[in-house]
Amino acid sequence: RRLLPRRTTTNVVAHAGDPGAGRTLVLVAHHDAAHSGLIFHPGIAPAAARIAPKAYARNDTSLQTGAVIVSGPALAAAGALAGIRALRLAGMVIALGSVAAMADIARRPVVPGANDNLTAVAVLLAIAGRLAAEPVPGVRVLLVSTGSEESFMEGMRGFVRRHRAELDPRHTTVLALECLGSDRLALLEGEGMVRVRDYDERAKALVAAGAQDAGIPLWRGLRLGAGGTDALPAMRAGIPAACLGAAGPFKVPSNYHWPTDTPENVHWETVQQAIDVAWAAVRRAATP
After folding, report:
1. Beta-carbon contacts of residue 224 (< 8 Å; ≥ 6 apart)
2. Where does the Peptidase M28 domain start and stop, copy by copy (predicted)?
3. Number of helices and strands in the chain (H, E)
């Protein structure tokens, strides 16, 4: 990372709720958008589902891109050490493919980012408005809009470094909001680009209870392997975290990292559902 160009990113942090409360709920949504790339082509998931429908239906974890990238050099090294030419060539092909994919992403423009992730920022603003109109005693709420999530969650990592001392894991929950304009609202089970780690059970239970209070069904069972969310830096710091997202019929966010990620392609009903669930989670967090 030190060898790559650097620019300044900005986090926006708003303090709301009860400032003297013993419990803290951090709602976080990134406001940056991603570059596009052929690996994000919206036809890939439907094609995979057509080619291997049973396997696709069984698999609820998206492709772990980090594991694929690491496997190239690992296979090449193993093949060289063992003297197995086929293994070495397979590693070289994967490594070169990874480099080509990254180069393709680097040369493409940034997508509009309506679903990923301005829908989540809209939820933050809606919750801020409700807290101003209807203060909720018993819980301190931090509304965090991060930059540079698309470059390995650098904004959230900075937030955690700066505020870790004041975020007691015993009394703090982080809820990441991601791609909330897809077809169905989902409470993800875990994430990880190389090794999937499940989110904290208590954090997931808080969101699930909020959804039940709001009368909104949540898609359960999905795990994120392709990329990461702002929940990950919190998890690594030992802070309980969960992620509220949404997905389309092929278990991926709609128009993900593609030029069609525009306001007219957002499912606004899902965004409203996310607002209702997040608000119910705030009220639940205030319950002793």
Report:
1. 61, 62, 188, 190, 191, 192, 196, 243, 245
2. 110-281
3. 9, 9
Mean pLDDT of 73-83: 92
- Tokens 């004041």: give the residue: 166
Side chain identity, residue 7: R
**All residues at 6 or more sequence positions from 19 whose CB lies less than 8 Å from its CB, including other chains:** 140
- Residue 154 lies inside a defined structural domain of this protein: yes
| CB burial of residue 78 (10 Å; 0-12, 13-18, 19+) | middle
Domain of 57 in residue numbering reads as: 44-107
Q: Three-state DSSP class for 185? A: strand
Is residue 229, in this structure, part of any structural domain at all? yes
Gyration radius of the chain's alpha carbons: 20
Per DSSP, 27 falls in state E
Structure confidence by residue, pLDDT tens digits, 199-229: 999 999 999 999 999 999 999 999 998 778 9
Cα-Cα-Cα-Cα dihedral of 183, 104, 192, 170, to 10°? -80
pLDDT in tens, 117-157: 999 999 999 999 999 999 999 999 999 999 999 988 999 99
Question: In the listed set 107, 137, 155, which residue is the last one of a domain according to the structure?
Answer: 107
Residue 63, pLDDT above cutoff 80: no
Give Dmax over CA atoms of the chain in angstroms: 69
Q: Give me the sheet containing 190-191, strands edge to edge.
A: 197-198, 190-191, 223-224
Torsion region of 270: left, alpha or beta (phi above 0 gives left; psi -120 to 50 gives alpha)? alpha
Is residue 175 within 8 Å of 139, Cβ to Cβ? no
Kindly state whether residue 1 falls inside one of the protein's structural domains.
no
* Structure tokens belonging to residue 256: 């993900």
